[in-house]
Amino acid sequence: MTFPTFISSQTEPRARGKEFGTHLRKRVAANFAGYTDLFRVAGARPAQVRAWGERALERSAAWAPHLADEMAGIAAGAGLQPWQVAVVNARTEILAAIDFVGHGECSTSVVLPDTGPPRTVQTWDWHDHLRDAPLLWEYEPDPGRVVRTFTEAGALAKIGVSTAGLGVHYNILRHESDTADLGVPVHLIARRILDEAATVEDAAGIARSATVSASTVITVVTTSEAASIEISPAGVAVIPPDSEGVLQHCNHFLDERLEAGVRHASGRPGTYDRLRHLRDHVAGLSAPDLHTRALALLGHAPEDAPVCAHPDLTQPLNQRWETLATISLDLPAGRLRVHQGGPCQVTESTWQTF
After folding, report:
1. ∠ at Cα 331 (326, 332), nearest 5°?
2. What is the pTM of this model?
3. 98: Cα separation from own chain's centroid
4. Are 210 and 189 contacting, i.e. CB atoms less than 8 angstroms apart?
5. Most buried of 98, 131, 233, 237, CB within 10 angstroms?
6. What is the rounded end-to-end Cα distance, in angstroms, of the chain?
């Protein structure tokens, strides 16, 4: 089992988007429909979702006009309206506006060894009815710079790596400052970091330049440095590795000031359990071999931390979580290593190199 791939031939944003939308028309439309179902079950009205999509498109155009153009191109190719593609890119913001609480989500580990490239791995957990949304996309934002990203059909980026030697991991957060007045979608921040940044400082500057309405953490890794950039309407914090070069993150804030405003902390104990699991398995997560690192993420509830998630089919779709991918950054090669599914399904032969 592998994720579908798409390599853009167009470099102008609107043309690139239209090419993407045309070739992936059914997937983009299905992803929008899947999010429409999720928002409905979570309590949003269709008129609210449209208004939020239009607002997200407006804020995106003000902050990064070329990315708004690319979303409009995807819409044209996929037979959708631009606000509908903006909804897919702003799904984090819409879920924050609804005040949606989820108990699953991603776990990220980065280790900077004394010698050799960074050793990274993360699980990507999301709703099981959206398991067909992910894909791998390669495009060229500038001549000579190639970006490869694991993303969802219609979303401009998520987890990824560039040939400039920088990559990002990605986890959702919740903060009391999150608001229904939609800001710049955090997925677009990840996209601009992949397209433009060469250092952690560059990435933090891009994050600080955006007015956001929802929270996330983008863990930025280069061949020599790493940091988790925690983003919320209350501010941006940069979390460095510890003295051993270890940097790990789940779905709660680590910055002391931002942590004081963490949203739904008592309702999401799994994130704290998962971070303890990561910290207890540093040896495995430090291994040069990716397969060993992935197996160090193996943990199932209720006996262990729910790092590897499986959906409870008795629950409504907005409360069903599945580890849909296990992902690592190969910075020297400018490539992603991706396994479709959770750590419990990993074998030596299931890794997809993109």
Report:
1. 135
2. 0.96
3. 19
4. yes
5. 237
6. 14
Strand partners, 127: 321
Which pLDDT does position 102 carry in this prediction?
65
Half-sphere exposure of 253 (CA within 13 A, CB side): 25
pLDDT in tens, 138-175: 999 999 999 999 999 999 999 999 999 999 999 999 99
Long-range contacts formed by 266-273: CB under 8 A, 24+ apart: 267/101, 267/103, 268/101, 268/102, 268/103, 268/174, 270/103, 270/104, 270/105, 270/301, 270/305, 270/306, 271/105, 273/305, 273/306
Share of the chain above pLDDT 70, in %: 97
Per DSSP, the three-state class of 30 is helix
CB 147 within 8 A of CB 334: no
CB 13 within 8 A of CB 73: yes
DSSP letters, 194-210, are HHH-SSHHHHHHHHHTS
What is the distance between the alpha carbons of residues 211 and 46, in angstroms, rounded to a whole number? Answer: 25
Q: How many CB atoms lie under 10 A from the CB of residue 23?
A: 16
Residue 238: predicted pLDDT: 98
The DSSP-derived string for 134-153 is: EEEEEEEEETTEEEEEEEET
Domains along the chain with CATH numbers: 7-98 (no CATH), 107-353 (3.60.60.10)
- Going by the DSSP 8-state scheme, the letter that residue 158 receives in this structure is S
